[in-house]
Amino acid sequence: MSDAASLNLFQQQEANRRRTVVLVVCFVAFFAWLGFGGDYIYYLYTRPAPHYAYHHVFPWFGIGLSLAAAAIAWYAYRTGPEKVLWSTGAREVVEPSSDQERQLVNVVEEMAIAAGVPRPRIWIVDDPDPNAFATGTDPLHSHLAVTQGLLDLCTRDELQGVVAHELGHVKNLDVRLMTLLAALVGAVALMHDGTARVLRPGGGGSSEERKPSPLVLILLAVWIVSWILAPIIAQLLALGVSRKREYLADAMSAQFTRNPLALASALQKIEGADAPTTHIKRGAAHLCIADPLGRRLTSHDGLFADALTTHPPMAKRIAILRGMGYAQLKQQGR
Amino acid sequence: MGPLVFLIVLVVVAAWLVAAYNGLIALKNQTLNAFKQIDVQLKRRHDLIPNLVNAVRGAMDFEKSTLEAVIQARNQAVKVNATGPEGIKQISQAENALSSALGRLMVVVEQYPQLKATGNIGQLQEELTSTENKVAFARQLYNDTATLYNTKQQQFPTSFVAGLAKAQPADLWEIEDQGEKAVPQVDLSLKPKT
Hints:
The complex is a heterodimer.
Chain A: H1 2-46, H2 60-88, E1 91-92, H3 99-115, E2 121-125, E3 132-138, E4 141-147, H4 148-153, H5 156-171, H6 174-202, H7 214-257, H8 260-272, H9 303-308, H10 314-331
Parallel strand pairs in A: 2-4
Antiparallel strand pairs in A: 1-2, 3-4
Helix pairs in contact in A: 1-2, 1-6, 1-7, 2-6, 3-5, 5-7, 5-8, 6-7, 8-10
Chain B: H1 2-57, H2 64-79, H3 88-111, H4 113-117, H5 119-154, H6 159-162, H7 178-181
Helix pairs in contact in B: 1-2, 1-5, 2-3, 3-5
């Protein structure tokens, strides 16, 4: 088990590193397309103008937007974890002040030992709905947050399973990719809203004087469509990226605790508590152990669910964990 | 064409050699590091036990022998001054004895509800559970890493490089269950023992 699992782990780490780079490159390339595309359209538009009028030759927009995108990506990578934690209103547990917090800290320390990663910083979100998420850029700088509801609902063993699941995400570098994604999705949404406001009044300009060629019009249409689609694409990316890795993190949790049945029963309890986690917003949904936006959709599988939900069906996850648990019991001859 | 093919084959073989060698060395160091983690947790446990015993001593005059066993096992474990994976047999024996003594103490505490009712004991129980878990998980990580290391150095074709990397099979931390499996005798009559 450990051999196959660790092979899987290295592959996953490698894949996550690669995907993070691809994500950043795509992000910058997308903005470069928007920028240079705008430049080109403006260039074509100003070309037939008289020689004394302004000719758009140097691609200012492209360079500017590309640099801005790179800066945003860098900024998102640096401050992503803080932003995610801040958006959920989590408070850090520095000195445990109650038995419950003491237990949480102990459980996290135990699981960090089992996973062989440094202990992450621990946060509690004051929300009655049971949920948990991890964020950070690498195992040395990682954060683990659980809701108050999870602490109230779960036994020690179940808490262990959930914490181990999150540390699985930390160990195979899921957190880096997903946190960056959360930050970038937020940035795209923000920029989109901002530019939409800027573009609207000044769009037409002096278009009555010259008739733009069809090529310019087509380019302009494609360009505008990509502006409109940007946040939707980013959102879909966030959805697609998180479903498969939940299974892997579940398996890693089982490897760390050697107790898959505890995580199965924790998931069962989380599934049973139907209230959405109101403190965790859409942008961070794909980081959580269970979909914070409500769990009706996650009970289905298939194309429709694939396109709309961040998490695989809970029943399937529980069934897989139970299978592991019973296989383990059988092996021990109990 | 001939020499070129030969050169490519040579480069590929050399690249594989380097990768296999480095992989083995990385695993070796991971194994050593995992063992260090066990040491850290054992040290923590040794430091915790005196406090623990002092805290419960007043509350459980009636279970003297259980406490004595814990103290004795702890002192035995501290005395073992073998270090590194070579001394693993010695260390694990002493530590397993301590684990089973602590396990008995925990069962005893569990059996006396009025002991559990005092808040202090509840906290101590949590600490004890956590300490035992930490030792167990550190051990688990070590065994997993060592197994990976052992498998790698025995598997074909990495086994050719094993001698070069001075890879020796690492001993696993065996859990001797006799002590842990032995059901502790718990006197539920609450009569003070003499």
